């Protein structure tokens, strides 16, 4: 019986985020870096050297070349969002499993083409949203699904902001319409929207309405925006994302019996542990001078950084397909699609002067 060997991952593009994911591949017990590609052979060589790649790593001077590499099982793709639809489809057609940076596409129509290619070729696709793989996230879901401690969800607020400096706001690919044209919405907003969907058990909202006052740069790329989401049963949510405000990454979910708060949901304050607070049936004392049942803090230890947990899970799924004939796991593209749908709806609302957008039938 064949023994499972580490999944051989190729890194397709030398973006800054690829440094972090390269380290994650090194740390994941079931994956190894097999190759790296850039449009420049010298850039690929330099990236491999500066990030401690194994000597056995193949260096490719084009994206086409790494697609043809028979010793690559899967590709991590951190290319600009505008290039995802072309290169993810080409990777799928070559039978390469895909770990795709977020946002997954410029719009859901593009992502549907990517998914169709993956399904036609039996390859796994997962987006690079790291925090959902942190062991803490399973504990958050456990609390949110507890009918006694949390009850029924009523509302969620989620935000991710950071203050980009002058160079970032002028030169980063996330402010360039031809590269990552979704701006703060596609970058920071993706996380806030994913958190909101997770709290709602990935049920899409009925309506999405952007708040007036979105900030766009001269090229029309969103630098800051917010939105409200509603569900048919009365649940609500708000999201906020910005390149113009202090570093903040918060989730607050309020239920009929309990409240959940996370203050560092995207990147934990510490790599080796992650905390959150909960309260259940909180109230005031008799004189209304203090709380009864005040919030309590819970800490979850992590044996691997969350990005390595992501790579480990991706490699596990690829291994199941490669070694055991399993089918790709459809959960991951399904939540990518739902996140992209809400991103699209917020952008559409901004573009239509903050009109309410219905997601019915999308």
TrEMBL record:
<dbReference type="GO" id="GO:0000166">
    <property type="term" value="F:nucleotide binding"/>
</dbReference>
<protein>
    <submittedName>
        <fullName>Uncharacterized protein</fullName>
    </submittedName>
</protein>
<dbReference type="Pfam" id="PF01408">
    <property type="entry name" value="GFO_IDH_MocA"/>
</dbReference>
<dbReference type="Pfam" id="PF22725">
    <property type="entry name" value="GFO_IDH_MocA_C3"/>
</dbReference>
<dbReference type="InterPro" id="IPR000683">
    <property type="entry name" value="Gfo/Idh/MocA-like_OxRdtase_N"/>
</dbReference>
<feature type="domain" description="Gfo/Idh/MocA-like oxidoreductase N-terminal">
    <location>
        <begin position="7"/>
        <end position="126"/>
    </location>
</feature>
<comment type="similarity">
    <text>Belongs to the Gfo/Idh/MocA family.</text>
</comment>
<dbReference type="InterPro" id="IPR055170">
    <property type="entry name" value="GFO_IDH_MocA-like_dom"/>
</dbReference>
<dbReference type="InterPro" id="IPR036291">
    <property type="entry name" value="NAD(P)-bd_dom_sf"/>
</dbReference>
<feature type="domain" description="GFO/IDH/MocA-like oxidoreductase">
    <location>
        <begin position="145"/>
        <end position="261"/>
    </location>
</feature>
